[in-house]
Structure formats: structure tokens, C-alpha cells
Design goal:
heterodimer; A: 261 residues; mainly alpha; B: 62 residues; elongated
């Protein structure tokens, strides 16, 4: 609503910026009642309801709902957990499944009419998810191999001349403990942020052109058309990013479990 | 296999980034400390070489 009013007040076109992501609280005067917070709760309710309904009357001949639920589950179980982690993958399936569905639904919120905000474009949410991945894969590695052996495997790769360790050990440490979790969060955040911004540019731009002189009005449909095409493109990116986040989480767990990285 | 390539790509990206960040930061620190101008560049070069060496060790050694 704010966006619609904004360009109607006579001034020039105000391009969308990062301030469009700082939404005011829906009620009250604090940071805990903003739209992304409610979207997160909504996503949890939606996911839970969907999978409870899909699995409640489980039958040998599945209903459509059960089939949909099982497709998502077996995708995460087989494509992500089993293929990547291999032996002993089953205990990570609940975690990976939660990650995948949670990120997927929150991303797709970005193009659902009326909701239209990808929760993960606020960086705190990807950070928290990456922190959970961070603790899971280091914990798993330390439990499996013992702290000493686990850190030794990370820092000192076998079969390398001793002098080379000065060069590469800091890089291994930095990669494992800083760069990996950071890029995991930033990749998801940046994709959602940029995608939403792109949609704002074309759709607000189209709306602004519509208020111009007749020549501009004629161009406006093209801006909206590109906006619609980009919406479908965004859907692809949103699904892909949920997949990549979960895939990399699974790979990090697999790496921590493996005897040699 | 697409998954392995995807994973290799992001690992390589991570190593290259770490290399530049770590040795680049050391070079920058030396520059600040000794009032010189060339250690940052040297650090970045050392970092990227180290990272490429590490990538070769991990993925190219078979």
C-alpha cells in the first residue's frame, strides 16, 4: 500500500531500495510484530498442517494429498540425504527435510499474492539457519571422529609437504569455520533480496509509467510483462535456493562424517 | 554427477575466498604497520596461489 501511494504523490520515480525491506510493525511499536515474523509463523503452520493432513490417513493407495507429501519427503530423503550422506543418512533426514520445506515455503512467499515478501531477504533468518547447520556438522564430526582427530583432519591434509601447511592450514580453518557458514547464509539472503528488488523495479516502474503521459502509458504494459516473466523466473530461483541450501548442509554433514575430507 | 560438481564449485569458491581474505588481510596489516603499499598485493597473490594449490590438492590430485 505504501508503495502504491509513494509514486502517486507527484514527485519523480522513487526507485526501490533496501528500505523497502524494512517493514514497519503491523501493530504495536516493537521489532517483533513485523511482516517477516508473521510469515515465519505462517510458514510453520502451513507446513505442519500440510504434512499432518498428508500423512494422517496414510494408505497403500495414496490420496492426491498423501502423494504430494510423500513426493517432497522422498525427494529430500533420496536425492539429498541418501545420495549425499550415504551410510547412516536416516537420522539426518528430519533435519534436512525441515530445512528444505521451511526455506522453500518462506522463499515462495515472495511471489504469493498479498504475502509477497520472501522472509529470507531479511538476513537474520538465513544467519540463524546457517548457525544451526554449523553446529550440526561440527557436532556430528566431533562425535564421529573425536575432537582431536576431527580438527587435525581439517587442518592438516595428509600427503602434503610440511612447509605447505603454513600456506594452506589457515585457509582450511577459515574455510571450515567462517567462510562456509557465512556464504551459506549470504547466498540465500542475496538471492532472495535481489529477486524481490528486481520484481519491485519492474512492477513499481510499470505502475509509475502508467501515471505518465500517453507515450509512457503505452510502455507500461511491457514493464508489467517483464515483471510477470520475472515472477516465474523468481519461482525457479526460490526453489533452487532452497535446494542448494539443503544440499550444501547435507554435503557439510557428509564431509564431517567422512574419515578423509 | 551434478551434485558433486555443485559441491566442488562451492568448495572451490570458499577456498579462493578464504585465500584472498586471509593472506590479503595479513598483507594489509603489514602495510599499515610498516607504512608500505605493496604487501596487500603480495598477500592477495600469495593467498590466491595457496588457494589454487589447495584446490589442486583436493580435486586435481587423483
Amino acid at each position: 500500500m505504501r508503495d502504491l501511494l509513494r509514486s502517486g504523490t507527484g514527485g519523480g520515480f522513487v526507485p526501490p531500495s533496501s528500505s523497502d525491506f524494512e517493514l514497519p510493525p503491523i501493530f504495536g511499536d516493537n521489532a517483533y510484530t513485523t511482516k517477516p515474523i508473521f510469515l515465519v509463523f505462517l510458514s510453520v503452520i502451513l507446513i505442519s498442517t500440510f504434512f499432518i493432513l498428508a500423512s494422517r490417513k496414510a494408505a497403500v493407495v495414496p490420496s492426491k494429498l498423501q502423494f504430494a507429501g510423500e513426493s517432497v519427503y522422498s525427494f529430500v530423503r533420496n536425492e539429498l540425504a541418501r545420495d549425499v550422506i550415504g551410510h547412516g543418512f536416516l537420522r539426518f533426514v528430519p533435519y534436512l527435510f525441515t530445512l528444505f520445506t521451511f526455506i522453500l515455503v518462506n522463499n515462495v512467499f515472495g511471489i504469493i499474492p498479498l504475502l509477497q515478501f520472501p522472509t529470507m531477504s531479511r538476513i537474520s533468518f538465513p544467519y540463524v539457519l546457517a548457525v544451526t547447520v554449523y553446529f550440526v556438522f561440527h557436532y556430528v564430526g566431533i562425535r564421529k571422529q573425536g575432537a582431536f582427530k576431527y580438527f587435525k583432519e581439517i587442518m592438516f591434509m595428509p600427503g602434503v609437504p610440511k612447509a605447505a601447511y603454513i600456506l594452506i592450514t589457515p585457509l582450511e580453518i577459515l574455510t571450515f569455520f567462517v567462510v562456509r557458514p557465512l556464504t551459506l547464509a549470504l547466498r540465500l539472503f542475496a538471492n532472495m533480496f535481489a529477486g524481490h528488488l528486481l520484481l519491485l523495479v519492474f512492477i513499481l516502474g510499470g505502475e509509475h509509467l502508467l501515471q505518465g503521459v500517453i507515450g509512457l502509458k503505452l510502455i507500461s504494459p511491457f514493464a508489467f510483462a517483464v515483471g510477470i516473466v520475472l515472477t516465474f523466473f523468481e519461482f525457479m530461483v526460490q526453489v533452487l535456493q532452497a535446494y542448494i541450501f539443503t544440499l550444501l548442509a547435507a554435503l557439510y554433514i557428509a564431509g564431517a562424517l567422512a574419515d578423509e575430507h | 554427477m551434478a551434485k558433486r560438481e555443485e559441491s566442488a564449485m562451492w568448495s572451490i569458491f570458499g577456498y579462493l575466498l578464504s585465500g584472498l581474505l586471509f593472506w590479503g588481510a595479513i598483507g594489509y596489516g603489514l602495510d599499515q604497520w610498516l607504512n608500505q603499499g605493496y604487501f596487500t598485493l603480495l598477500g592477495l597473490l600469495v593467498g590466491i596461489s595457496g588457494a589454487i594449490y589447495l584446490v589442486w590438492l583436493r580435486f586435481g590430485r587423483e
